[in-house]
Model the fold of this input.
Amino acid sequence: MIKIKTFTSTLKIFHVHNELVELDKEVNDFLQQNNITKVVSVSDSTTNTGGDTMGIIRVLTYEY
Done:
């Protein structure tokens, strides 16, 4: 069965690298805790207001 999970993170100026590392850790922890062995796709998109990046949405598609 294919499932989809979304993860979100706000992006603050001068902290983007750390926030992306934390988002990666959150996704990897989810994969390990749920014993997911097959990832179909991972996609990132940003949310913004007035041209400024405000957040990131990561969509994970996996087989369960």
